[in-house]
């Protein structure tokens, strides 16, 4: 339960950050307000001796986070993908949290698999390696199926991860409440909603059957996409705490030297990664939301292999259209269009001045477009855009958190492959294609057809609905005073007369023509 008992957990957190030297680094990187800094010091400095020591070979913040447990590590992973928030140096320090954490014993993994699948590991696999990658929630083993000899990846949840996560996320909720009370200005960022969103995402990661379903759905959506591959799950060898899938063979996306040695075109790979993400987000509304280098490989034939579907993003069709319009507005430097989209979507309160907002957006976009290709950044655009929207009263939209975060991650991957990549030029064809298919005349016809289908589905219910509701409406009307009833009758007569006159005029005009 969320309550004062979490103060002890927060004190332990502050003490660990203080003891490892991470407190000042984190507060400076996050540009924390004075009240939050003071509260952090109160929870940390006097109790530093209570903090976990951590691994002294790690950088301060990474050392503190790994010592505190899995939920903190997951938060660290998210922050590692946001150099626009925490700075490049700290983001680089946190990047090692992706898949290089200490593994748990292979014997324990074997026990988990046997309990989950119902058969001993030696009956299921002829080969079963020690951990080849260990992250905050699970670790992966390389194996070979006994029945058909296929090489597979076996993902196993860490022991006790569910209870540890529940304990930590409870403290996060308590901390979010404290932050909103200590710093009212932070309410615009909706920290409590952000924590709730984070909780829902990671709770999904704790059931590996859901990850298998995500991989299956993602594979169906992208079946016709060229230049990419998705490892498929093996359902009969998977369960809530175990996931078996095809082995993703290839060179890790982060191994630039290996990619060059194999003859791959790195700039082309960078462009394809960015376009893939935009296509999945805009076309499908369902995208891989953890596309860092640790989850990407390049196969021998040049295909980009995407795996680890623990975190997926989903956005509805209306939001996709808004997002595409905003991107296209910036690409075309049409700031009034971007402003209008924000107002129409309700992102900015309607009592604000739209033209003033458009001028503020111009101040965001022009410096970026005036830069050389290596400095054109969607991540920087988002950072500057948040500053402007804060001034105009826009609240953080939690449904876009994963989309925004993944955009920054994908940009980092693309730029590592091609430092001179022009994000706008690469993304423009995908955005234009989406707008052409979803915001033009064909889209209007398609929308009308869908509306007709919905009305058609409910049409058989209309007679029963009217028979049931009309007597109630008539009784309500009869209970009102005669004057209002006469006024309503006169109004209806006037409307009928007007409709008749309009009809006669239309017919006369048609005959004259």
- Major β-sheet profile: 4 strands, antiparallel
Helix % is: 55-70%
DSSP helical segment count: 23
**Beta-strand content:** 5-15%
Which residues form runs of ≥5 with pLDDT under 50?
491-513
Strand order of the largest sheet: 1-2-3-5
pLDDT averaged residue by residue: 79
How many structural domains in the coordinates? 3
Q: What sort of overall outline do the alpha carbons produce when their principal axes are compared?
A: globular
Number of strands: 10
Q: Nearest-angstrom radius of gyration?
A: 28 Å
Question: How are the SSEs ordered, and which strands pair?
Answer:
Elements: H1 6-20, H2 22-30, H3 34-44, H4 60-68, H5 70-80, H6 83-86, H7 88-94, H8 106-117, H9 121-124, E1 125-134, E2 138-145, E3 151-157, H10 161-182, H11 191-205, H12 208-221, E4 228-229, E5 242-246, E6 251-252, H13 256-261, H14 266-284, E7 286-288, E8 296-298, E9 304-306, E10 312-314, H15 317-331, H16 335-344, H17 354-369, H18 378-391, H19 401-417, H20 423-438, H21 441-458, H22 462-478, H23 482-512
Parallel strand pairs: 4-9
Antiparallel strand pairs: 1-2, 2-3, 3-5, 6-8, 7-10, 8-9
Helix pairs in contact: 1-3, 1-4, 1-10, 2-4, 4-5, 5-7, 10-11, 14-19, 14-20, 15-16, 15-20, 16-17, 17-18
Structure characterization notes:
The protein is α+β, with helices and mostly antiparallel strands. It folds into three domains: 134 residues, no CATH class; 191 residues, no CATH class; 60 residues, no CATH class. The chain is built from 23 helices and ten strands. A hairpin with a 3-residue loop joins strand 1 and strand 2. Helix 1 crosses helix 10. It is globular. InterPro entries: ABC1_dom, Kinase-like_dom_sf, Prot_kinase_dom, UbiB, UbiB_bact, UbiB_kinase. It comes from Paracoccus halophilus.
């Amino acid at each position: 339960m969320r309550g004062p008992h979490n103060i002890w957990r927060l004190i332990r957190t502050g003490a660990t950050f203080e003891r490892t030297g991470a407190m000042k680094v984190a507060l400076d990187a996050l540009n924390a307000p004075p009240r939050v800094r003071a509260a952090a010091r109160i929870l940390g400095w006097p109790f530093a001796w209570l903090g976990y020591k951590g691994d002294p070979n790690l950088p301060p913040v990474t050392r503190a986070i790994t010592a505190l447990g899995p939920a903190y590590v997951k938060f660290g992973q998210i922050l590692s993908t946001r150099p626009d928030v925490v700075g490049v140096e700290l983001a680089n320090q946190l990047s090692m949290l992706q898949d290089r954490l200490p593994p748990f014993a292979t014997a324990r993994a074997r026990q988990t698999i046997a309990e989950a699948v119902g058969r001993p590991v030696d009956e299921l696999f002829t080969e079963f390696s020690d951990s080849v990658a260990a992250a905050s929630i699970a670790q992966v083993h390389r194996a070979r199926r006994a029945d058909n000899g296929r090489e597979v990846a076996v993902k196993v949840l860490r022991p006790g991860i569910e209870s540890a996560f529940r304990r930590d996320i409870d403290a996060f909720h308590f901390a979010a409440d404290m932050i909103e009370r200590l710093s009212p200005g932070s309410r615009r960022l909706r920290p409590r909603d952000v924590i709730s969103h984070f909780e829902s995402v990671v709770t999904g990661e704790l059931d590996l059957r859901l990850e298998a379903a995500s991989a299956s759905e993602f594979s169906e959506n992208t079946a016709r996409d060229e230049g990419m591959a998705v490892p498929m799950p093996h359902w009969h060898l998977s369960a809530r705490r175990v996931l078996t899938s095809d082995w993703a063979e290839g060179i890790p996306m982060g191994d630039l030297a290996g990619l060059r040695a194999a003859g791959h075109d790195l700039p082309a790979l960078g462009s394809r990664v960015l376009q893939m993400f935009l296509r999945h987000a805009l076309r499908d509304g369902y995208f891989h939301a953890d596309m860092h280098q640790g989850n990407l490989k390049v196969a021998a034939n040049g295909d980009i292999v995407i795996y680890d579907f623990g975190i997926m993003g989903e956005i509805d069709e209306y939001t996709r259209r808004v997002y595409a319009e905003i991107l296209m507005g910036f690409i075309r430097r049409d700031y009034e269009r971007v402003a209008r989209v924000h107002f129409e979507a309700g992102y900015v309160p309607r009592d604000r001045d739209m033209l003033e907002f458009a001028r503020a957006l111009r101040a965001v976009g022009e410096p970026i477009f005036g830069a050389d290709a290596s400095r054109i950044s969607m991540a920087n655009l988002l950072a500057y855009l948040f500053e402007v929207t804060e001034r105009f009263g826009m609240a953080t939209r939690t449904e876009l958190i994963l989309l925004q975060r993944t955009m920054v991650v994908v940009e980092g991957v693309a730029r590592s492959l091609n430092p001179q990549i022009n994000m706008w030029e690469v993304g423009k064809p995908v955005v234009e294609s989406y707008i052409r298919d979803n915001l033009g005349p064909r889209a209007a016809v398609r929308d009308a057809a869908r509306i007709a289908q919905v009305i058609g589905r409910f049409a058989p219910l209309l007679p029963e609905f009217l028979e049931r509701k009309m007597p109630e409406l008539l009784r309500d009307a009869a209970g009102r005073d005669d004057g209002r009833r006469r006024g309503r009758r006169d109004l209806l007569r006037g409307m009928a007369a007007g409709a008749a006159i309009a009809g006669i005029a239309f017919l006369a005009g048609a005959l004259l023509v």
